[in-house]
Amino acid sequence: MWPIFQAVVASGTTYIFSAETSYEDAIAFWFGPGSSTYVAEEDGKVVGMYKIVANYRGRGSHVANAAFMVDPQSSGKGIGRAMGEHCLREAKRAGYVAMQFNIVVSTNEAAVALWKKLGFSIVGTLPKVFRHESLGYVDAYVMHRFLDDIEG
Question: Could you tell me which residues are beta bridge partners of residue 35?
Fold first, then answer.
């Protein structure tokens, strides 16, 4: 998982983490309290990972949040979609009624398109909240979907 994390954050184009994020901080993010973490494997090698966690505590704990990373060398193989579909089923099975992504970088067209295909809607735009490595400040989206049509 660590090599994937490093490769994804090094690009500075899709994730809020800096390239200098420590191994300890990365592990704390992926395996923190309340997180359910999963990996995708191909030929015995981890090629993707995701986690589900409550978006908020208390009265917001019925809405899931998730984070995904795919090994850049494995992009375009449907791994993100497979993990997304699995994630929606697992979130439903865990009792969540909706899922929300708090920051999907607007220039990450592949992710935005995938989440839309999986039933998410853009419910808000956060102006210039992400500092893109080459484009400077860019917008990010809040994306949301209910899970009532997902079989748990």
Answer: none
3-state secondary structure 72-124: HHHCCCCHHHHHHHHHHHHHHHCCCCEEEEEEEECCCHHHHHHHHHCCCEEEE
* Contact call for residues 150 and 92 (beta carbons, < 8 A): yes
Q: Does residue 127 sit in helix, strand or coil?
A: strand
Rounded Cα–Cα distance for residues 11 and 33 (Å): 27
Q: What is the pLDDT of residues 39-81, one digit of tens each?
A: 999 999 999 999 999 999 999 999 999 999 999 999 899 999 9
CB 37 within 8 A of CB 30: yes
- What are the beta bridge partners of residue 146? 98
Task: State the pTM of this model.
Answer: 0.94
